[in-house]
């Protein structure tokens, strides 16, 4: 279907509900968008960052009850130490039939060598089993569920976590539950989303084979614990931490349940568990720290900390002190390099995403960047920044992928870095230097935000195809009727828009395009190392933003999560945010018609692309996702038109030549021919497929699994179903 036919068809049929547009970045709202325009934002003088009302909390401020969820004794502050020497893990060289890590292997390729399912026979896939995790909102609970889980498979076990961190082992052929570990996470500890992207398989170097906890399953939890259980029984590993658990809130200072959480599986690099966490966005400048820490995979012992504003202090804080507050956090899945002894950390912004005047120089250097940390010491080896002085919430949500990049003198160890801007950077992972050209291009500077100038340039990866569409124009505005189109044209004219990196504004809204949900978000990409083909699904969804002064933020009821006056709906960067401790709050919504909940820019809103990494040419590209479950006012059209919907979750690619991806708001699992890009199969899921699928083989049969848990913010149906497919028995 051509772009012209696509636009005509979608306009005729009254397309896509895009209350789903902003996806699942942990830039967190407590409720759906409210479109009440704030008006001019200068209701009072903004004040100065030095005002005492913008000061940070006392270092002696206590943590609220329930923050240390398991009441794990802290013990005295620990000094840096080294990890127990590790054995090689199964994810380094996965067995042909396994999927032993979140990205299948330590390189995070999301590539499987399985060949049983092909473009020719994929149409015969049928459901082998459906497993129900039991994790869904209880009666009376606000829906915050979005499981985002990718299971792993090692040997005779299919392992996964529920949205609330219960760990299970399933029979890979039948889905029968072998064991279950109840993590005991409480509803109050859910941040923006109840999500657990995956678990980690670890083989001990100190416990003999055949003994309990020789093989272990590890996860980080929503209430900030590390948990290790025996892979055969699901029982806690008593020799790890405090009876199998480590308290990650130690040294974090003042906080409340739900402010800080882990949703991504931590990498284990040369025996060190490297831990990051998300900090609820939009709350306050002096939010809990975004530091990165290392723990011994055998014992749970603290190894080191990287705290941006305490760069030479790698131990835990002294009694009565805490890690530096408000620093850039990393919530994405990290990638570990055992050979180089590095972990590649995708970072976000300092707290208060849309205002940068109060950030330290050290914070500005490492925000929205890849930071390569030495896993022995926690010290940075190199930093590559993708956005300078980010005030658009362009944190890096994707897991980087390690590849062998063809160089003049042979393969170069490289890192592929997807971004929300649709810029894909390819770096030498030894030193962080670009392997493909990167240009610093002029960026808009005009802003009425006092004392917060923008960077004059921003980096563009000109050596890779951009995953994006041209800048918006007034003529791109559309709707189901001429009145809708006129409404969106007026809304476009009312806003400030100077292309990508339009600077924030107080007096009127500004359009952020790309929006903070992509390009590429947490689903990342898939890479076939045999062919050198990179597969990416991505978003085309602008946002409508405006800063408001502290007085107006208070009038709008924007309070941070830890304020006694906080009410659900009180703010986060996927909606209105308090940004307390700063002169401003933020009002954010999709760039849509708030009456029909249809986007103001014409479709598509989601795409899928295949890139040949040898030539850096696009092999094929087209819209991803149909209109069947989408429509104005939330009414599904049930039309099978491929119009391109917002999507969250990544692709996988197989040696059989099939790309599997769900992610879309049509609640389907899609299969594409990896060579042609033609869609060769799909199936309607029992809930939204906002997760990355995986595939494995067991007893000679290939299976494909997808968590169809839905997503509260994408407004896809919530479910607790893991759906697993296989070809029918027989020839």
UniProtKB/TrEMBL annotation:
Compositionally skewed regions (Basic and acidic residues) per UniProt: 94-103, 433-453
GO cellular component labels: membrane
Pfam families per the UniProt record, alphabetical: PQQ
Claim: Oxidoreductase is one of the keywords in the record: yes
Residue ranges of every copy of the Pyrrolo-quinoline quinone repeat domain listed in the record: 99-704
Cofactor(s) the protein needs: pyrroloquinoline quinone
Region described as Disordered: 27-103, 433-466
Gene Ontology molecular functions: quinone binding; quinoprotein glucose dehydrogenase activity
Entry keywords, A to Z: Oxidoreductase, Signal
Signal peptide coordinates: 1-29
PANTHER family according to UniProt: QUINOPROTEIN ALCOHOL DEHYDROGENASE (CYTOCHROME C) (PTHR32303), QUINOPROTEIN GLUCOSE DEHYDROGENASE (PTHR32303:SF4)
Family per record: Belongs to the bacterial PQQ dehydrogenase family.
Name of the protein in question: PQQ-binding-like beta-propeller repeat protein
The organism of origin for this protein: Gluconacetobacter takamatsuzukensis
